[in-house]
Design a protein that fits this description.
530 residues; alpha+beta; seven-stranded antiparallel β-sheet; globular
Length: 530
């Protein structure tokens, strides 16, 4: 006699077999569509990778920057396409729409939640790694940069042409331009020049219909949305036209480290009172992590004050002595160099590294981690800071790090609605939380630690909404439905945290340009009626 449990098992096996067969059909039909609609079948075949291809695993894994999404349990794409030409993107979009395959677009692979290369429905990855050309126009102080180029490659190409031109973007050189600009893009010049998106003047995008649009043809609403409205929502951005900024031929950097025993708590507290008000040419970030103390076997907290000053050391020292004398900065702590050399220094490369290291797309470290973000509008008290330090004494905090990035300056001058990125005036600093752990360890322990720290921080950070930075994706904030429509109310749970009042306009633009919600992921802008 057949038992209920055996019937359930049979039903499960039949359902699983149906899903596999359906995925196989989608896969084959998609591949046939690519070759039949491509103008050059030889060309398209050279950039298609399936699980049967010997290079599939290496292509997939090369741009995975968070090893949390490298396990055997992580869903894998049915196909990876690494386009060489714009036409490859156009045909991929057309065939994916025809055959119901979800698209995930990857430029550098630094998405904190792996959303550029992981999905729980049948999907393919459009990997822009081959679209990385950079054309610098020194005379007009502009550049066209394809989305697959890294920030390091961009900095290097600018340095080839000029010693006094720069671009305000991130300090991790392996981050790709596409993802960086799509979410905002900040670096050590944000107080002088704002974000990357504040210095974008044109873009070229492939829309849901496979049509290539520039700023003029896409219109100002869509151009507004793609500059900070997050990637994977509005189309595939092929390249950006950016405005380069003038910097001195010589800049100054320093890193001063202090432990708790060296008054780090007082220094961080004092830093919060001056970091957003000091000269706009100066950014002083604080990096907080656990280290070994001088006493054998003991641990302590170390705060690194890392800085870029757009000027010479003899200009910097009087500024520091006037505004932040408690740090005790000395001439010996400071190094003068070119702006391009400062990108190597701030990028964490060993002293004396040449600019060539910027061309390496492989990060210095590959980590398994969880990240979160916050915005601070009032200085965190010393008591509040000491509560953070206590949590850093817990076992799970061995690989934890906090980075405080000061705002003010240009960031306070740009209205919240100018771009989708709303975190402007009123913010003292931004917080990036990360906790790293070894691959194979029980990730839940470390993620739970991060969530406890995040909960502890609630009284000290922005409220209603508790703001977050979209380039530091955090699915704890909420997510869209895997299947079916997501309501405006549901998406607002995370959307208002990333975009505040700009979220409504983003939804309106999305609904206008992609009403079928083809470009979607767990935190993409939904196509709904607010």
């Amino acid at each position: 006699m057949e038992t209920p449990s055996s019937s359930l098992l049979l039903l499960t096996l039949l359902l699983f077999s149906f899903v596999l067969a359906n995925s196989a059909d989608i896969h084959e039909n998609f591949l046939q569509c690519l070759t039949s609609h491509s103008q050059n079948t030889t060309s398209i075949s050279q950039v298609i990778y399936t699980p049967n291809n010997s290079s599939y695993a290496s292509v997939l894994e090369f741009s995975i920057r968070n090893f949390r999404f490298l396990s055997r349990h992580t869903p894998k794409p049915l196909v990876i396409i690494t386009p060489l030409h714009e036409s490859h993107i156009q045909v991929a979009i057309k065939c994916a729409r025809n055959h119901g395959l979800q698209i995930r677009v990857r430029s550098g692979g630094h998405d904190f939640e792996g959303l550029s290369y992981v999905s729980h429905v049948p999907f393919f990855v459009l990997d822009l790694i081959n679209l990385r050309s950079i054309t610098v126009d020194v005379e007009n102080s502009t550049a066209w940069v394809q989305s697959g180029a890294t920030l390091g490659e961009l900095y290097y190409r600018i340095a080839e042409k000029s010693k006094t031109l720069a671009f305000p973007a991130g300090f991790c050189p392996t981050v790709a331009v596409g993802g960086q600009i799509s979410g905002g893009g900040y670096g050590f010049m944000l107080r002088k020049f704002g974000l990357s998106i504040d210095n974008v003047i044109d873009a070229r995008l492939v829309d849901v219909n496979g049509i290539i649009l520039d700023r003029k043809s896409m219109g100002e609403n869509l151009f507004w949305a793609i500059r900070g409205g997050s990637g994977g929502s509005f189309g595939v951005i092929i390249e950006w036209k950016i405005k380069l900024v003038q910097v001195p031929s010589t800049v100054t950097v320093f890193t001063v480290q202090r432990t708790l025993q060296q008054n780090a708590t007082m220094l961080v507290h004092r830093w919060q009172h001056i970091a957003d008000k000091i000269d706009n040419n100066l950014v002083i970030a604080t990096i907080i992590e656990r280290v070994n103390s001088s006493k054998e076997g003991n641990k302590t907290l170390q705060v690194s004050f890392r800085s870029l000053f757009l000027g010479r050391v003899n200009q910097l020292l009087p500024l520091m002595h006037k505004n932040f004398p408690e740090l005790g900065l000395e001439r010996a702590d400071c190094i003068e160099m070119s702006w391009s050399e400062s990108t190597v220094y701030i990028g964490g490369f060993p002293s004396g590294s040449s600019l060539d290291v910027l061309l390496n797309r492989t990060p210095l470290t590959k980590r398994t981690f969880k990240g979160k973000s916050d915005y601070v509008k009032e200085p965190i008290s010393e008591i509040g800071l000491e509560g953070i330090w206590r949590r850093f004494n817990e076992e799970e905090a061995a690989g934890a790090r906090l980075i405080f990035i000061p705002y003010g300056g240009k960031m306070s001058e740009i209205p919240e609605s100018d771009t989708p990125f709303p975190h402007r005036a009123g913010n003292i600093h931004h917080i990036l939380y990360t906790v790293a752990f070894q691959e194979g360890e029980a990730s839940s322990r470390y993620i739970d630690w991060m969530r406890r720290l995040y909960s502890y921080m609630a009284p000290y950070v922005s409220k209603s909404p508790r703001e977050a930075y979209v380039n530091y994706r955090d699915l704890d904030l909420g997510k869209n439905n895997d299947k079916g429509k997501t309501s405006y109310a549901q998406a607002s749970k995370w959307g208002l945290k990333y975009f505040k009042n700009n979220f409504k306009r983003l939804v309106l633009v999305k609904t206008m340009v992609d009403p079928s919600n083809f470009f979607r992921h767990e935190q993409s802008i939904p196509a709904v009626s607010p």
